[in-house]
Amino acid sequence: MTDQLSRVFAALADPTRRDMVARLTEADHTVNELAAPYDVSVQAVSKHLKVLEDAGLVTRTREAQRRPVHLEAEVFDLMTRWIERYRRRAEERFTRLDAVLARMQDDDTTHRSTASQEGTAS
Amino acid sequence: MTDQLSRVFAALADPTRRDMVARLTEADHTVNELAAPYDVSVQAVSKHLKVLEDAGLVTRTREAQRRPVHLEAEVFDLMTRWIERYRRRAEERFTRLDAVLARMQDDDTTHRSTASQEGTAS
DNA sequence: ACCTTCTTCAACTGATTGGTTGAATACAAG
DNA sequence: CTTGTATTCAACCAATCAGTTGAAGAAGGT
Predict the structure, then answer these.
(1) From the CA of B61, how many Å to the C1' of D30?
(2) Which domain holds residue B16?
(3) Total number of domains in chain A
(4) Are strands B58-60 and B69-71 parallel, antiparallel or unpaired?
(5) Contact between B15 and A33 using a beta-carbon 8 Å cutoff
């Protein structure tokens, strides 16, 4: 299979599934309750739930015939960690770029013919 | 088409695309440079870039024959806003749950037969 | 003009996805 | 044991996706 981070992103790439997650932040729900607002079959919602479960976003526990769905919010951290890491790097790069631009105002009208200077990023 | 948030999540649900984004936080790159490390065709990478572009994660500007790819990190905020909103709600719910559990220690051995008490969440 | 380089477009393919319907399972209640 | 309710499994279908190969477009170098 693919890695969990991919599964989490993929799971949240669907508006219906995001809406389900949103509703589950308020309270646990059964499959039938979750399916009610959408005009798709209960089976389709059950499949969506399986996607969320495989991503580790929800768990299901048995309770009589019902299978209450519970949100596992810790997985959110997996995403925020990834996002924040690269957001930070991108921002650092902008500040570095600012420094470069400031320095460029000095030797402006100089050699421009040394093409392909992307170098080897450390 | 689908909404942007869905497109962003879907775009990042692929390890290759995430890796490209990661590399683009360091510096802009051409399609060929981006394609080099992966053992897929350049065309495949070009398609991946189209996905990232449609999600608003990157832009391409022309520069001679080259089309340098530039990361647009602002879109990350779209995700973090969504994630943080519901993470917060989930956490609030846990604290509420703690309060309920504390109160339940009082009237513990009481009526248990009033099923389906999920009520109407305000 | 011609050739080369970088990139995209087009058509095709196999795998995955999101939906359907119908049958099967798991319990609880008569 | 039969019925009813909640849920899932299985098979199918249309659409999308990630990859391929081959051709075309765009811009520079000679």
Answers:
(1) 27
(2) 4-71
(3) 1
(4) antiparallel
(5) no
Q: Is the Cβ pair B118, A86 closer than 8 Å?
A: no
pLDDT of res. A94: 72
pLDDT in tens, A72-121: 999 999 999 999 999 988 888 777 666 665 655 554 444 333 333 333 33
pLDDT, residue A71, reads 95
CA distance from start to end of chain B: 33
- Measure, in angstroms, how far nucleotide D3 C1' is from residue A66 CA: 18
Full DSSP string of A38-76:
SSS-HHHHHHHHHHHHHTTSEEE--BTTB--EEE-TTHH
Residue in B6, B25, B86 nearest the CB of A14: B6
User: Residue A86 falls within a domain, yes or no?
Assistant: no
Dump pLDDT digits (tens) for B75-99. Answer: 999 999 999 999 998 888 777 666 6
Q: Positive or negative, the Cα torsion across B55, A6, A81, A91? A: negative
Q: Given B25, B27, B83, which is nearest A79 (Cβ)? A: B83
Interface probe with B: pick from A75, A93, A94, A117, most Cβ of B within 10 Å = A93
Q: What percent of chain A has pLDDT over 90?
A: 65
Q: What is the CATH number of the domain that holds B21?
A: 1.10.10.10
Which chain A residues touch B29 with a CB distance below 8 Å? 118
Q: Work out the average pLDDT over A32-50.
A: 96
Tokens of A63: 């309770």
Q: What's the Å distance between residue A111 CA and nucleotide C4 C1'?
A: 26
